[in-house]
Design goal:
This protein is α/β, with parallel strands linked by helices and 212 residues long. The chain is built from ten helices and six strands; from the N terminus they run E-H-E-H-E-H-E-H-E-H-E-H-H-H-H-H. The chain has two domains: 3-137, Response regulator (Rossmann fold), CATH 3.40.50.2300; 146-206, Orthogonal Bundle (Arc Repressor Mutant, subunit A), CATH 1.10.10. Helix content is 53%, strand content 12%. Helix 4 (87-96) crosses helix 6 (127-138), helix 7 (152-162) packs across helix 9 and helix 8 packs across helix 9 (178-192).
Length: 212
């Protein structure tokens, strides 16, 4: 019997996914979680074959959650289902350890296909993103956007600064010291060849970056 954990903070989305799963995988055991903490509690409480994970849930960064899950349960399959479609997010999600990346605007048949592929041990990305990913991997370092040089944490802090968050708020959200956040900020400015928070905000807007 396949066990599937659906993790999304929107009840309507969870119910919709469970309905699709009930039709396509009638023998499957399906559970649900509405935030990162519930996901962690459930995966420690029982064995799951796959987690269908929303990238933006309350509790912590989606990338941090993926990494923590894979450290504790290396064989757990993770399929990220998100509203965000940027190829840079897909690359970071796959590098963090997820086996698949799918956007919510895809048809139910695509979701089922992605689940089957991931459960079979393969990687999966949206067909619409596959070409963009190939292009990204083929681009030379001179053509690659500067933000691709940022670590996942630096990328996260960049987006939080651009959203207008204070250093104190960012530190509290990430459970880090203000000194550490300032160090991240300095690294980000250096890697992006920028000088101020205004420059960082402009860069995020111009490159249409999304928080993880």
């Amino acid at each position: 019997m396949i066990s599937i954990l659906v993790a999304d903070d929107h009840p309507v989305v969870r119910q919709g996914l469970k309905h699709i799963l009930a039709e396509e995988f009638p023998q499957a055991q399906v559970g649900e979680a509405q935030n990162a903490q519930e996901v962690l509690e459930l995966v420690h409480r029982q064995k799951w074959d796959i987690v269908i994970l929303d990238l933006s849930m309350p509790g912590r960064s989606g990338l941090d959650l993926i990494k923590e899950l894979k450290r504790a349960f290396p064989h757990l399959r993770i399929l990220v289902l998100t509203m965000l479609s940027e190829e840079q997010l897909a690359i970071r999600v796959l590098r963090a350890g997820a086996e698949g990346f799918l956007t919510k605007d895809n048809a139910p048949e695509e979701l089922v296909k992605a689940i089957r592929k991931v459960l079979a041990g393969s990687k999966y990305v949206n067909p619409s993103l596959a070409q963009a990913l190939v292009f990204d991997l083929a681009t030379t370092s001179l053509e690659t956007p500067l933000h691709t040089k940022l670590s996942d944490r630096e990328y996260q802090v960049l987006c939080m600064i651009a959203s207008g968050r204070s250093m104190k708020d960012i530190a509290e959200d990430l459970s880090l010291s203000i000194k550490t956040i300032n160090t991240y900020r300095a690294r980000i400015l250096e890697k992006l060849n920028l000088k101020s928070n205004v420059d960082l905000t402009r860069y995020v807007i111009e490159n249409r970056l999304r928080s993880l």
